[in-house]
Amino acid sequence: MIKMNKGMIIFFVMFIISAYIASSWDSLPLVKNTVSSILDPSLGILLKWPNPYNYVGFIIIIGLTSLILTLAQKYLSDQAALRELKKEQKILSEEMKKYKEHPEKLMELQKKQLEFLPKTFELTMKPIMFTTIPIVLFFRWFGMYLNPMFGGWWILYYLIGSMIFSGIFRKLFNVA
What we know:
By secondary structure, the chain is mostly helical. The protein has a domain of 122 residues. It has eight helices and no strands. Helix 1 packs parallel to helix 7, helix 5 runs antiparallel to helix 6 and helix 5 crosses helix 7.
């Protein structure tokens, strides 16, 4: 039987709630209308700018969400422990390169590497806990505006933009 720690249980509960909200968006008018009443007058204004400035609004929103998520990661997780864990993973990765020709030693090192996953998950759980549901609500609202502009491709543009902004903000704020 699989032993689940408290963080894993919280993650699954947040995932289930988020999946329910995302799939029931149109049948939950209270949620949809509340989110729209908050985001339409704030971020919605950026998306209502005339062409081509609405694309600039889209980029600004991507930057803002990336900034918020990066700051959540920085201040809601144990950065010192994450840095130490990454350092250990890097050492282990270098050691694995040395033993490419020795399958039994490589297998042992790979098992060690798998031991880092629960530790990393535990250290990054708190930011996930606080940002999952707001991000799902935001994405559902965001899709209403962006589908007419980009079709279903908006999510790809968002992901590319967020990777760029997140990389910049992670370096700027020294996030592990």
